[in-house]
Amino acid sequence: MIDKIEAFCLNILRKIKLGKLADLYEEHREGMRYLVFGVLSTIVNIVTAALTYYVVFATLPEQWKVNLSTIVAILAAWIFAYVTNKLYVFNSRKNTVKELLQEIFSFVGCRIVTAIVELIIMNIFVTRLQWNYMLMKIISNVIVIILNFIFSKLLIFKKKDIDKKII
What we know:
The protein is mainly α and 167 residues long. The chain has a domain at 93-158. It contains 7 helices and no strands. It has helices at residues 2-15, 19-27, 29-56, 62-89, 97-128, 133-156, 161-166. Helix 1 (2-15) packs antiparallel against helix 2 (19-27). The longest helix has 32 residues, at 97-128. The chain is globular.
């Protein structure tokens, strides 16, 4: 399904004389897919946070509302990111229970690391140095996205030599 949508969009780019852009996408397909699904994961996070903050946890005290909404949003984004990265970005072929559990624990472990990195960045630059919150949020998200891609590519969804030969 994703391949058909992707082919359709690349076809449109070529028809409107943006073939070089389509070629660039195809040359860097994995990174481009990661970017597309990263944006969608961010949308999942924001929508989930808004729904939980304003609807589900609306009657709770502010600190509880903020913390619970954030945790639920992160978990929703993690689930979305894991499934899309596994199936559409990195085409992971790990299917045994042991391999899947190892992949999932690697994914969550790496995401916890990048969540801590983001919290440290935000606390140092916004809380202590009083830099602009939105500027640091953008910068920290860029750093986290890059780290998540590296972790996903090298640690979580890495292909065995046999898988590389198949593809």
